[in-house]
Amino acid sequence: MTDGKVLLEVQNLKQYFPIKGGILGRTVNYVRAVDDISFVVREGEVLSLVGESGCGKSTTGRSLMRLEKPNGGQAFFNGVDLFKLSKRELRNLRGDIQIIFQDPYASLNPRRTVYQTIDEAMTIQKIGERANRRRDVAEVLQAVGIGEHQMDLYPHQFSGGQRQRIGIARALSVKPKLIICDEAVSALDVSIQAQVLNLLMDLQRRFKLTYIFISHDLGVVRHISDKIVVMYLGEIVEVSDQKALFNTPGHPYTYTLLTSIPSTNLDEKKERIILTGDVPSPVNPPAGCRFHTRCPWAYERCSVEKPSFYQLGDAQSVACHLLQDGRVDFKNLPFENKATKE
Ligand code: SF4
User: Fold this and answer.
1) Residue 288 near ligand 1, beta carbon < 6 Å
2) Which of 7, 71, 95, 130 has its CB 3.0 to 4.6 Å from that of 14, i.e. a possible disulfide?
3) What does 3-37 look like in DSSP terms, one character per residue?
4) What is 6-96+176-341's CATH topology?
5) How far is the CA of 101 from the centre of ligand 1 (A)?
6) DSSP per residue, 167-186
7) CA 235, CA 238: separation in Å to the nearest integer?
8) How far is the CA of 34 from the centre of ligand 1 (A)?
9) How far is the CA of 238 from the centre of ligand 1 (A)?
């Protein structure tokens, strides 16, 4: 983990979506997409939010961008609470926090050339001089591997990987302090994924950027992350530095996610644990530990009592009763038949 100053502090973030019902269309319940989560991002750090689809990681990113209106909590960015800003104040701050989406084609205007797209972003954020704009746009495109001669082309004239590079250039052009990468490489072919990941890592070092990297794939975040936050059903279950998480995962859910990463070593005999059953509904999440309906190591306490966080060394904290009950080595605990071992 880096020891830079705190750039973003999220406290007790809640993002619920109302479910309407009845003739009057009243709110009858809520989807608890993000339920009381807290974490800290330091300057120059890459913090990854991971978990299966529906765990709330992308909603967290959208809430921080104020693309959704949070139901509770605070998010202090350089000491300023993002959730209390007026629309005007938020517009002024937009340049500092940028987001890169999964689908670069949907996030680029098909009727604007690359130059027009980046020019618009720079004009809104009052970056640079108008007279130097073509030079500035060429520079930022060069940083992401797109040639100056391509700046007057339209999005459909590029490949998926190139379009994602243009999305990155647009984010970079306004000189952000924090970039939220929301499944930024998930839609790309595996070989292109690696290129775009390398580019993001390169830019992060070069421009001293801070990333929140959102992905469903622990294999993807492995090399880019300093710190990893694992989410399950709207809650955080483990926060760990990269090394500790991959060497000694502390939460059963993290462990099962890790065993599902394909190995490139053909000689390695890896125990795979495939979780059975669907992720429960975030409308009525299970009582106690939300993972207990699928956890192979669940025992009586898990379905009645919500686990609090337990510190495992300086850089790792885990919400699981096993640790508090002294059953630390969960890998050697008896399995229940809720998961399939391969
Ligand atoms: Fe599994 Fe219980 Fe730990 Fe939850 S608290 S992860 S159900 S062992």
Assistant:
1) no
2) 71
3) -PPEEEEEEEEEEEEEEEETTTTEEEEEEEEEEEE
4) Rossmann fold (3.40.50)
5) 33
6) HHHHHHHT--SEEEEESTTT
7) 9
8) 19
9) 12
- For ligand 1, whether the C-beta of 292 sits within 6 Å is yes
Q: Is residue 296 within 8 Å of 336, Cβ to Cβ?
A: yes
For the CA of 251, the closest atom of ligand 1 is: 6
Q: What is the whole-number distance in angstroms between the Cα of residue 59 and the centre of ligand 1?
A: 24
Q: Report the candidate in 94, 165, 162, 95 with the shortest Cα–Cα distance to residue 127.
A: 95
Which token pair is 212?
């929140």
200 within ligand 1 shell (Cβ under 6 A): no
- For a substitution probing ligand 1, which of 273, 295, 338 has the most ligand atoms within 8 Å of its CB? 295
**Host H or E run for residue 48:** strand 46-50
Nearest-atom index, ligand 1, CA of 323: 3
Question: 3-state SS of the chain: helix, strand, coil percent to 5?
Answer: 35, 25, 40
Provide the residue ranges of all domains of the chain, joining segments of one domain with +: 6-96+176-341, 113-169
Instruction: Say what the pTM is.
Output: 0.91
Q: Residue 77: CB within 6 Å of ligand 1?
A: no
